[in-house]
Amino acid sequence: MFLRYCQLLPLLLLLQLPSHAQTPDTARTVRLPEATVVGYGQNLPLRRTAAGVSVLDATVIDRFNQTSLTQAVNTLPGVRLEERATASYRLSVRGSTLRSPFGVRNVKLYYNDIPFTEASGSSPLNLLDPASIGRIEVIKGPAGSVYGAGTGGAVLLSTRRPLPGEARVQAGFTAGSFGLRRYSVAAETGSATATLRAQYTRQTLDGYRQNSALRRDVLTLDGEFTFSDKQTVSVHALYTDLDYEIPGSLTRAQFEQNPRQARPTVGTQLGTVDQRAGYASRTALLGVTHDYRFNSRWSNKTTLYTTATTIKTPFLTDLERNTSLGWGGRSVFGYRAALAGRLLRLSAGGEFQNSFEDSRNYQNRRGTPGTLRYDDEISTSVGFGFAQADWELPANFLLTAGASLNGLRYRIARVSDAAARPDSFAFRRNFQPVVSPRVALLKEITPQISAYASVSSGFSPPSEEEIRPSDGSLNRDLEAERGTSYELGTRGNLFNNRLVFDVALFDFRLKQTIVTRTTESGVNVFFNSGSTRQRGVEAAVSGWLWRPTPTAVGAFLPPHPTAHLPACVPGPATLTIISASVITSRATKTTVATASPAPHRIPFPPASISTRSLVFTFSLPLATKPKFRSMMLIP
Question: Exposed/middle/buried for 18, CB within 10 Å: 0-12, 13-18, 19+?
Fold first, then answer.
């Protein structure tokens, strides 16, 4: 049989409705909007996209705890985001974390069209502030025909955008258990030709376990400028100062004795507290995207970026200090024409990334550098070219075919051995160029329902951490993974667009699977181990079950609403809500309640809710009256 197991994860999203006086039975007249997705670059409605794609927008993200993306992302079928330690993530798309004991690998990430996955193959997801993310699009399965290396898929992240004609300043504060403190301030303005948004966030946490504290400062600047109906330029800057502690793993006996303890000292092997295990980094990213439409047929989108990072990582046996510089770009040309009287969309382009890293490894003497073990200079270059065609066929069929040619090169020189052994240690590895094709066929069964089938191949070369583990050895024999995915799916809406469904079945066959084992000293080493087969079914359902009404969360109108407000802000302050939703997670043992503005007034706080932390987000539109945009109650 095609499937031996299945996993069903319905997503019941209770979307907020605007309030209108004397409007009977709003739930009967409101319809869910049809989402448009980037997908494989087609920018089509989700119903006409022949791929496994899931989307989270700001309305869904805001329903969850904004200190972490894990709860929101884990509502997507086939996707799991794990926080193995504070701010240390693993992202699994259809089981792509087989080879990832730590870090985000085997999945390609983009941040506002900027390649966010490093040339080395790792994606520093912990650099981002969850509250700045306005949209997450996950493409599941091998996406190498357009996005290059990675058999897990691709994740497209977009920051929040101001609405045209609005200007506002926002400030927020969060306090919670285990020393959680979060401060944020944002300013944004938008017009018909330009948008600009700046945000600063600081988050600190003592942590549930010993040696699991966190401090993260994130500054983002996003601007988009439209010079004409043909030309748009976007600029994105990100700076992150991150410092978190690593508690380490526990045996079953240690966990049962005290689950909050860090990995203890055993004999001569010092634990994570004594060794001050942690991760500290400073990263700056700058990217520019130029979007130009030559005419009704031709267009081009080009992105260039540069990044710089310094990292200090003390762990059980060693202490690493890395300094790296990276740069790269992506350019895509689009063409629209008619073939046999049917619309044909063509796209072709390429992507290139290069990085240089100076990596020094010392003995760890209780958090301070000891004797230098080795000093490596690492150069990594990765690139691919791709082409894709979408052809609208008769009988409401859509045929998509694409392929990419991928290359990767590592250069590692051990500078610390240059004087004594100048020719003894130089590692060069050029991976054989790999072609990653994809073919998909979609049929619109009705104007509301479609079905598709696709076959896609991908490859995933070993990352720098897998070729060069922390013990200083080099894995010269590690080969790239190669896999092929077969997928069937259907999606659409029922009952006059009030219920939306998305179901997919997949069979993924992977060769040269990279797996890991841990040595006695705690070092993760990697090797190829035969083949694996991953099969499953994914399902998502969303729709209107009933009209939301104000529950659980209230609003408060001050007795002197104009007091303590800036003189430039006319009118009274009004604190209102339209509706509330409560989402409880048994896995994380948390409950999040949200509320949004509308003409309702309820005494605050409600006596029926007992909270351990209270989150307020205050919005101050410029030259208009201030109001609460949202509240979150986190028991």
Answer: exposed
3-state helix, strand, coil in the chain (%, to 5): 5, 55, 40
Burial class of residue 152 in the structure, from the number of CB atoms within 10 Å of its CB (0-12 exposed, 13-18 middle, 19+ buried): buried
| 363: pLDDT strictly greater than 50 | yes
Query: Does residue 380 contact residue 463 with C-beta atoms inside 8 Å?
Result: no
- Which amino acid type is present at position 475? N
Encode pLDDT of 459-491 as tens digits.
888 888 888 887 777 888 888 889 999 999 999
Per the listing, tokens 């690493």 go with 320
Residue-range domain boundaries for the chain: 26-159, 548-635
Per-residue model confidence as pLDDT tens digits over 141-182 = 999 899 988 888 999 999 999 988 889 999 988 888 888 999
Parallel, antiparallel or unpaired: strands 180-190 and 194-205: antiparallel
Provide the CA 118 distance to its chain's centre, in angstroms: 14
DSSP-derived secondary structure letter, 568: T
Looking at domain 26-159, its CATH class is mainly beta
Q: How many CB atoms sit inside 10 A of residue 362's CB?
A: 18
The 8-class DSSP code of residue 27 comes to G
Runs of H (alpha helix) within 237-383: 252-257
Percentage of the chain with pLDDT > 90? 43
**Does residue 182 contact residue 172 with C-beta atoms inside 8 Å?**
yes
Rounded distance between C-alpha atoms, residue 277 and residue 279, angstroms: 7
Helix, coil or strand: residue 135:
strand
Distance CA 542, CA 555 (A): 28
Q: What tens digit of pLDDT does each residue of 6-29 get?
A: 333 233 222 233 333 333 333 344
Element (H, E) at 443: strand 426-444
Query: How many residues in the chain?
Result: 635
The DSSP 8-state label assigned to residue 266 in this structure reads B
Single-letter residue type at 59: T
Alpha-carbon span 430 to 434, nearest angstrom: 12
Predicted pLDDT of residue 67: 86
The count of other CB atoms within 10 Å of the CB of residue 518 is: 11
Residue that is written with structure tokens 């997919």 in the block: 504
How is residue 198 written in tokens? 């700046």
CA dist 368 and 353 (Å) reads 33
* Amino acid, single-letter form, for residue 202: R
Q: Which residues contact 472 (CB under 8 A, 6 or more apart)?
A: 361, 373, 374
